[in-house]
Amino acid sequence: MNNKTDFLTGKCLVAMPNMTAEHFAQTLIYICSHTKDGAMGFIVNKKIKEFSFADLATQLPINPIQPIAPLDLHQGGPLEKIRGFVLHTTDYVKNDTVVIDENMAISSSIDILTDIAFGIGPKDNLIALGYSSWTANQLENEIKNNNWLIITPNTELVFRTKDEDKWQKAMDEMGIDINRLSYSAGHA
Which residues contact 7 (CB under 8 A, 6 or more apart)? Predict the structure, then answer.
């Protein structure tokens, strides 16, 4: 990928500790697309507590032979909360899959949900309802205003770290002690 045209595609935004916006406090957001026209991503560390994958499967035409293994759904963001997406590893690529980089892809068809229910989906996946989006220059301005830090994620952080630990682990991976952070941005 060419970073001059893909901007922050494939990176994660780490909310600064002073971020108090209801949907974004202590979030880790995977950026699936970032261009001059705006950005789109998914919060990867906020579970939906009142609704599970098994609940979702019963509302869709998915009838697995065996009971569905427990799987969490995530609050992808405040927009279109009933629209589903699956962020996953590239070991699973179908016609509707958008490959983000060598490790990560996104799909949104019922086929991937069916394959996950039958145990033949991607090795690692995260199902998100809703998404986060920024208009042209909005995200850049939020970064300039010291709302977000940026990290290059790995599949361990996104898929295999407990949701409640992801934000702190991202801070730790950057070598940041949140007790020493200044919440005001400096501009030279």
Answer: 34, 35, 36, 39
